UniProtKB/TrEMBL annotation:
The keyword DNA-binding belongs to this UniProt entry's keyword annotation: no
Name of the protein described by the UniProt record: Proline--tRNA ligase
PROSITE patterns according to UniProt: AA_TRNA_LIGASE_II
A molecular function (GO) term: proline-tRNA ligase activity
Upper lineage: Bacteria, Pseudomonadati, Pseudomonadota, Betaproteobacteria, Burkholderiales
Cellular component GO terms held in the UniProt record: cytosol
Catalytic activity as recorded in UniProt: tRNA(Pro) + L-proline + ATP = L-prolyl-tRNA(Pro) + AMP + diphosphate
Subcellular location: Cytoplasm
Comment text on domains: Consists of three domains: the N-terminal catalytic domain, the editing domain and the C-terminal anticodon-binding domain.
PANTHER family reported in the protein's UniProt record: MITOCHONDRIAL RIBOSOME PROTEIN L39/PROLYL-TRNA LIGASE FAMILY MEMBER, PROLINE--TRNA LIGASE
Keyword Transcription regulation: no
Amino acid sequence: MRASRFFISTLKEAPSDAEIVSHKLMMRAGMIKRLGSGIYTYMPMGLRVIRKVENIIREEMNRAGAIELLMPVVQPAELWQETNRWDKMGPELMRVKDRHGRDYAIQPTSEEVITDVVRSDIKSYRQLPINFYHIQTKFRDERRPRFGLMRGREFTMKDAYSFDRDVEGMQKSYKIMYDAYVAIFNRFGLQFRAVAADNGAIGGSGSHEFHVIADTGEDALVYSPESDYAANMEAAEAVALGNRGPAAEPLTKTPTPGKAKCEHVAELLNLPLERTIKSIVLAVDKEGAETEIWLLMLRGDHSLNEVKAAKIPGLGAFRFASEAEIVDAFGTKPGYLGPVGTKKPVKVVADRTVANMADFVCGANEEDFHYTGVNWGRDLPEPLVVDLRNVVSGDPSPDGRGTLAIQRGIEVGHVFQLGTRYSEDMKATYLDENGKPQLMQMGCYGIGVTRILGAAIEQNFDDKGIIWPAAIAPFEVVLCPMGYDRNETVKAETDKLYGDLQAAGVDVILDDRGERPGVMFADWELIGVPHRVVIGDRGLKEGKLEYQGRRDAAATAVNVGEMPAFLK
Ligand code: ATP
Ligand code: MG
Ligand code: MG
Ligand code: MG
């Protein structure tokens, strides 16, 4: 590629809405252009990186036996209604109507469509297992689109879907995809970590996230340097909470027939009955750096937000800055941490203070019974969802083989064992050897293609700009001739090297724009091309070219004829 025939558009200053380094640098390097909130045009320089990312993913998916297809971006609402996700997804799901008033979803992911394909086209056990993938535009109406491509609304994702006869098969397919992901992220040249993720309702260890390690990452990762234990904070906390608490105390189920829930809870909490309550929720609210603990007493089925906004009359909402204050106010430690009247534990955004509360006697609820001695987080009917800081570095690793450390990461991939979550709702069955219909066992596997760009930069930059790993750089090598348009020797040597490198399959760009050296160097350092060769009259007189790697402090002289081999 000749720079004069390509589109290069660099900026000295990043726009003011760019908050993090990758967003700033991508804007300055002319890789993306903002069209609207979370919506970007991929400019030629950025698109080259995207294509390289896609190609690596495609090669490894194909190698792993996945088959590429391409599903529509606009999908009929009926399919989404079959799985209930039309309602469940809420405002993140972008919806449109056609001229006939029919509803459509703009895909945030494609489980429904692929399950529809498979239920109609796969009939027999002989056709399984099978794994389909596509690399396609996604749309999620994110609450807070930000950080450029990192959390866009329109973005590109590779999503793959496996279908198997049984759980064992699904686990095999999952392992194949997991290994393919390791190969992909290794090829990107990025430092990454695969961590166990909480699988929510599906349970088991059936989900892993792949994170690019970066201090600016939104997620906290917990790992043990001495063993291979690694989990995201959510999953690690669930384990930690499950391991704490009054495990030694037996779970006791107290019959409370006819007794009002509020009465029993009041008893547990040692509260006067005139403060009767229908349910109690203990939650921690994190606003910025501030952490507050709320002990909420609800008289009806009100949401936490309603309560916090204090719009519900006749309820007691108490705000506590610390655990000690709760003890102070009630003369007892809070004994109840699950919402009464439902079987669901409250979603708690926890802090270390709350982890300590797992050491208290807790209750969980069932019609006409109360349990005490429940180990909070372990024995509740669904895993408690928690976030951050119940695990701190130095804690023992759950596998007993070391201690825990914490680092930050950016979620770039996610693999899931889905089981029959979709095949059940959509009746995706195959006929087994006995001609009996069986539900297919599914897995799904996503990679955030465009997010990879942001993540790669967050991990690899300096004060001059981006430092792309060679495998995904927009160009691998840039040739910077000193006086290409005025010095014949320089031009001839540059053209020769350019031809030789192209012939050798090197992705090279020749900067023939006639810019001053300072401008040229600054542009390519900002854009982040990993290898630079300077062709100048002075060096050529000694038969030398100047090579400088993007991370090198100084240039190295290389013999003219040896440069192609040197760069390989
Ligand atoms: P997050 O936790 O960041 O919101 P997610 O868990 O909702 O991501 P998944 O549903 O697991 O995302 O989708 C698979 C992958 O798609 C993610 O691992 C991520 O790399 C990418 N992705 C998700 N949302 C976005 C987004 N808004 N912009 C860019 N990439 C995204
Ligand atoms: Mg999300
Ligand atoms: Mg996530
Ligand atoms: Mg995810």
